[in-house]
Design goal:
ETF_b, two-stranded antiparallel sheet, globular, alpha/beta, Probable electron transfer flavoprotein subunit beta, Rossmann fold, electron transport, ETF_a/b_N, 6 helices, electron transfer activity, 258 residues
Length: 258
């Protein structure tokens, strides 16, 4: 692949930190976001880590790693983290604080950025932990008419201009092989993301962080979905342990499950 440099784009999303239990707001229209810690979406972090690993294993092959996030101005903190971890540059597509961008609109924005900058490998998380849509990678593949490999648990760059992606499936593994350009979405077991060191966090402040708006890309945010109401799931009763099969059968009879 020496004749074809890899230009990698890694979309990342700012979400409520995975260690925090989300709370529904008083209006029952969404998740409370005031006074809550935000961080990079875990699946996006895995996507970034994989792009860095690809560069470390193929130093002469990767031309650049570019991270992009669609979010409010505060989302630039997430981008600074990606720069501290090793990304070369970043772009914030700035939207309003309370504005929601659905996967189709995300796909259109990413398509515009990809075509303007001639990227040939897109690595992104399979889903974000806030809406769990698991749609952006697939939609982007359809918009660009590119090959895609979803739910990657292993990525291998070959010397013949191809990429092999291993996916976990029921009872085994599924290995896909594709030429560039390619879209890869990452699963949890692909890698373990690194931490950003303090010196690299300081250096990241000097790396380029571009700010654009959807209108700069000729795109209007149009939502097709409306949230009517969000409710807590009903509380479940605690389970019990039984000592043997006879006790299990007796309990099942008591609740008329047998």
């Amino acid at each position: 692949m020496s004749s074809n440099k890899l230009k990698i784009l890694v979309p990342v999303k700012r979400v409520i930190d995975y260690a925090i239990k989300p709370r529904i707001n008083k209006q029952n229209t969404g998740i409370e976001s005031k006074g809550v810690k935000f961080s990079i979406n875990p699946f996006c972090d895995i996507a970034l880590e994989e792009s860095l690993k690809i560069r470390e294993a193929n130093k002469d092959l990767v031309e650049s790693i570019h991270t992009v996030s669609i979010g409010p101005l505060k989302a630039q903190d997430v981008l600074r983290t990606t720069l501290a971890k090793g990304a070369d540059k970043s772009t914030l597509i700035q939207i309003k604080d309370d504005e929601e961008v659905e996967p189709l609109q995300v796909g259109k924005i990413l398509k515009s950025i990809i075509e303007k900058n001639d990227y040939n490998l897109i690595i992104l998380g399979k889903q974000s932990i806030d809406d769990d849509s698991n749609q952006t990678g697939q939609i982007l593949g359809g918009l660009l008419n590119w090959s895609q490999a979803t739910n990657a648990s292993k990525v291998k760059i070959n010397t013949d201009n191809t990429v092999e992606v291993t996916r976990e499936i029921d009872g085994g593994e599924d290995v896909l092989k594709s030429k560039l350009p390619l879209i890869i979405t990452t699963d949890l077991r692909l890698n373990e993301p690194r931490y950003a060191s303090l010196p690299n966090i300081m250096k990241a402040k000097k790396k380029p962080l571009e700010k654009l708006t959807p209108k700069d890309l000729g795109i209007e945010i149009e939502n097709r979905l409306q949230i009517l109401k969000i409710e807590e799931p009903p509380k479940r009763q605690a389970g019990i342990k039984v000592e043997n099969v006879d006790q299990l059968v007796e309990k099942l009879k008591q609740v008329k499950a047998l």
